[in-house]
Amino acid sequence: MTQHPAIEIDLPASLREALAGYDWQRQTIGASGAGVFRLEASGKPTLFLKTEETGQFAELPDEVARLRWLGSQGIPCPAVLAFEAHGGHNWLLMSAVAGHDLVTQEMAPDRAIAIMADALRRLHALDAAACPFDHSLGPRIALAKARADAGEVDEDDFDDERLGQSAQQVFEELLARRPASETLVVTHGDASMPNFMADGGRFTGFIDCSRLGVADLHQDLALACWSIHVNLGEEWIAPFLALYGLPQADTAKLSYYQLLDEFF
């Protein structure tokens, strides 16, 4: 592991003191827009630090609120140790969740999809009325438009069927295909395999929770299915949906929420 002095120089004074002696390792798994670092030191707990530029579309303040709420519901996730805005950046220091994500570690596909299905069932069973974060289609589509208008959507990262289109063209498709109804539950919002942690073959927590909120359950199933397709193979999607308890998931909604994800 190596130190990253440029990051350390920009740290708020309180974090610089707290993290003295730690080695830093940049994390590259996942698609988070934040810089993520694993911090280790002999005799001290492993920590994670995330940083991003402040601004209209910053997500770390959202993640702080959601981690605190999610932890209060008994769902395992990182504990927020410190959060500061300093030098034009947000800084979030968290505890580490035991184990490794479902992409990094070697695990049999049947076990990985079982962990995902069980974790999502548990999350979706929370009382949606008690969740303060509204991620239903109205506000999410409005945010998608704001991101597109501000040039925040990476058109070069669109899925194959939309490559070459503009964000505005894809947004028009998003409006045209909007589902008529929503089955609202507490969703993770980015339920891809890198955001499920496991240790010893058992689920240990969710990470990257900045998009957690009340949304249609297909929000999570759509991104889980896409991630399974990419990381394990399409043949594991049907078994995953069966284990979750929705073998006849609405394919139009699965496709729609994958389309919505193009904006985030």
Please describe what this structure looks like.
- The protein has 9 helices and 10 strands.
- With 264 residues, the chain is α+β, with helices and mostly antiparallel strands.
- The chain folds into 2 domains: 5-95, 2-Layer Sandwich (Phosphorylase Kinase, domain 1); 100-263, Alpha-Beta Complex (Aminoglycoside 3'-phosphotransferase, Chain: A, domain 2).
- The strands form 3 sheets. The chain has a 5-stranded antiparallel β-sheet, covered by helices on one side.
- A hairpin with a 2-residue loop joins β4 (80-86) and β5 (89-95).
- α4 (109-124) runs parallel beside α8 (237-244) and α5 (137-149) runs antiparallel to α6.
- It is globular.
- InterPro entries: AGP_Transferase, Aminoglycoside_PTrfase, Kan/Strep_kinase, Kinase-like_dom_sf.
- Belongs to the aminoglycoside phosphotransferase family.
- Residues 30-253 form the Aminoglycoside phosphotransferase domain.
How does the SSE layout of this entry go?
Elements: H1 5-10, H2 13-18, E1 23-26, E2 35-40, E3 47-53, H3 60-72, E4 80-86, E5 89-95, E6 100-101, H4 109-124, H5 137-149, H6 167-176, E7 184-187, E8 196-199, E9 202-206, E10 213-216, H7 218-231, H8 237-244, H9 251-260
Antiparallel strand pairs: 1-2, 2-3, 3-5, 4-5, 6-8, 7-10, 8-9
In CATH, the topology of the largest domain is named Aminoglycoside 3'-phosphotransferase, Chain: A, domain 2
| Ends distance | 31 Å
Number of domains: 2
Question: Structural class, judged by helices and strands?
Answer: alpha+beta
